[in-house]
């Protein structure tokens, strides 16, 4: 079950869409994730908003699972790694990176990545505004360009499905419209932006143990 994924091909490259709301590029042995928003729990609790105390542990555990299962050489984070100001949850993430010194982590800066630069000085962590390859460009915000497929985050895409008895369910999804490939938010407490379905776009729904094309 842990190896369940949906396999797609983009411009000649195989890509695996994982139910942990990540994608894997087997040719490069690279995991790509977006919008962890670590620190969100502590941030909102400081504002007096009730939040599960240990919700960030689920995200850290899920990252351990992905790294141990797929053994990537690199991990690309498409922004919003940390939600707001520095708090103890950053120490959890720092410990995670130091536990995997063989992995190169690359953070594409998002609008929430506002920590002091000293906090990002970890041996196996790099930061960049965006990353450009021959056929793909990786960013946090969706880019308005047509020359390359843009992998991005920020949106937290989701779909609402309706049953015959008026029941409904909201699910995160991977979204592809031909030029933009938007990843679901990885973080446990990130919420969804519900998309309107369009005939010229593809939606890959994230279920508990698999990803299915809508």
Question: Overview of this structure, please?
Answer:
The chain has a single domain, classed as Purple Acid Phosphatase, chain A, domain 2 (4-Layer Sandwich), CATH 3.60.21. The protein has 214 residues and is α/β, with parallel strands linked by helices. The chain has helices at 40-46, 55-70, 89-99, and strands at residues 6-10, 13-18, 22-25, 30-33, 74-77, 104-108, 125-128, 131-132, 136-138, 149-152, 157-162, 168-176, 180-182, 193-194, 202-206, 211-213. The model has no long low-confidence stretch (mean pLDDT 87). 16% of the residues lie in helices and 32% in strands. The longest helix is centred in the first third of the chain and has 16 residues, at 55-70.
Please tell me the CATH architecture by its name: 4-Layer Sandwich
Beta content:
25-35%
CA(first)-CA(last) distance: 21 Å
Query: Can you count the beta strands?
Result: 16
Q: TL;DR of this structure?
A:
The protein has three helices and 16 strands.
Question: Keyphrases for this structure?
Answer:
214 residues, alpha/beta, Purple Acid Phosphatase, chain A, domain 2, 7-stranded mixed beta sheet, 32% strand, globular
């Amino acid at each position: 079950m842990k190896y369940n994924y949906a396999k797609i091909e983009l411009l000649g490259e195989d890509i695996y869409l994982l139910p942990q709301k990540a994608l894997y590029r087997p040719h490069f042995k690279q995991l790509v994730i977006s919008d962890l928003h670590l620190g969100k729990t502590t941030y909102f609790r400081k504002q007096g908003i009730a939040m599960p105390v240990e919700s960030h542990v689920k995200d850290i555990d899920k990252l351990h699972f992905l790294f141990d299962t797929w053994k990537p050489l690199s991990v690309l984070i498409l922004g919003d790694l940390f939600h707001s100001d520095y708090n103890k949850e950053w120490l959890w993430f720092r410990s995670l990176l130091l536990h995997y010194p063989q992995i190169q982590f690359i953070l594409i800066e998002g609008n929430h990545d506002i920590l002091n630069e000293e906090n990002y000085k970890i041996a196996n962590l790099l930061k960049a505004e965006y990353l450009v390859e021959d056929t793909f460009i990786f960013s946090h915000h969706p880019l308005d360009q047509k020359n390359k497929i843009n992998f991005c985050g920020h949106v937290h895409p989701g779909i609402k499905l309706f049953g015959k008895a008026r029941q409904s369910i909201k699910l995160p999804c991977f979204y592809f419209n031909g030029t933009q490939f938007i990843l679901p938010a990885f973080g446990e407490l990130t919420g969804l932006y519900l998309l309107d379905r369009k005939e010229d776009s593809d939606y890959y729904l994230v279920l508990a143990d698999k990803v299915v094309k809508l």
